[in-house]
Structure formats: structure tokens, C-alpha cells
Amino acid sequence: MWKPNATVAAVIERDGRFLLVEERILGQRKLNQPAGHIEHGESIVAACVRETLEETAHHIRPDALVGVYQWSPPERPELTYLRFTFSGEVIGHAPERVLDDGIEAAVWLTRDEIAARAAEHRSPLLLACIDDYLSGRRYPLDLLRDLDTRPGDAA
């Protein structure tokens, strides 16, 4: 039975640079936004906050939805991702925190530096989300209604 993978990503910009992760995927270095899967019982916004912390050691506060994206890798067309991408700001850093398995580093790069490393992009979603952010796409967080949010959830 087909079902899409629900994921989140964060577009975090500071002084013209974007917070990204360098990660190892099947032995190859890839660039991506901090991103990952929504866990059971977790709100979409809370998933973005958690994934960004786990992958970059940065605490963020999401402030808008940049967009919702659907993508299937060409080599695995049976696999579909639905990505909820948020913008936000860094509100803290925990440099002593160990990053998720496979994450080699959190890096800050300009849009031009990111584009120049296109061969390393984990997916076309990386630049699409940044370009949408730069074009001014922002939707209010209350667009998302989570009727199953658990007590204590961040969203």
C-alpha cells in the first residue's frame, strides 16, 4: 500500500547564509537543510524544531511555513516525500551536543555557495525551498491545524 513519507525541513537564514547539514548518504557527502521524518504523536512544527536541534545543535523558533513539497527520487519512483518546510530564527546553540548519525557538520553557506555545490544536493528540494524563501513565500503557522498534538508538544 502506497503512502507518502511526511517530512519537515528548516530554512534558517542569518546574514545571507543558510544553515545546512553535510551528511553521508551511501558513502557520499550530501548537503541538505536540517530535515527528517515526523514522529508519531508529534506536531509538524515540533518535528522541525526537533530535527534541526538533532542535526545542527541549534535551537530554532519557526515563524512561517515556506511551502509544502512533493517529490519522488527518480531512482525510486515508488517512494514519495511530502515535505513541510519552515523558516525561522536561531534562538540558541548547544555546541557540545552530538549530532545525529550520518551528520558530519552543520554549515552556513550563501545561496551561491549552495548552488555551486549542486552535485552534492541530497535532492532538488534543497534549492527549491531556499529559492521560495528568498522570493518571499511565507504562510502563517496557524495554516497547520494539528488535532492530535500531545500535551507538552512545542507547537
Describe, in plain words, how this protein is organized in 3D:
This is Phosphatase NudJ. Strands 1, 2, 3, 4, 5, 6 and 7 form a seven-stranded mixed sheet that branches. This protein has one domain: Nucleoside Triphosphate Pyrophosphohydrolase, CATH 3.90.79. With 155 residues, it is an alpha+beta fold. The mean pLDDT is 94. It has three helices and seven strands.
Helix-strand layout with pairing:
Blueprint: E1 5-14, E2 17-25, E3 28-32, E4 35-37, H1 44-56, E5 58-71, E6 81-93, E7 103-109, H2 111-116, H3 125-134
Parallel strand pairs: 1-6
Antiparallel strand pairs: 1-2, 1-4, 2-3, 2-7, 5-6
Low-confidence stretches are none
Average pLDDT: 94
Described by its quaternary structure, the protein is: single chain
Shape: globular
Major pleated sheet: 7 strands, mixed
Number of helices: 3
Q: Care to count the β-strands?
A: 7
CATH architecture: Alpha-Beta Complex
CATH class: Alpha Beta
Tell me the span between the first and last alpha carbons: 30 Å
Class based on secondary structure composition and strand pairing: alpha+beta
Please tell me the total number of domains. Answer: 1
Classify the fold: give the CATH topology.
Answer: Nucleoside Triphosphate Pyrophosphohydrolase
- What is the beta-strand fraction? 35-45%
Helix content: 10-25%
Radius of gyration, in Å, reads 15 Å
String of helices and strands: EEEEHEEEHH
CATH superfamily: Nucleoside Triphosphate Pyrophosphohydrolase
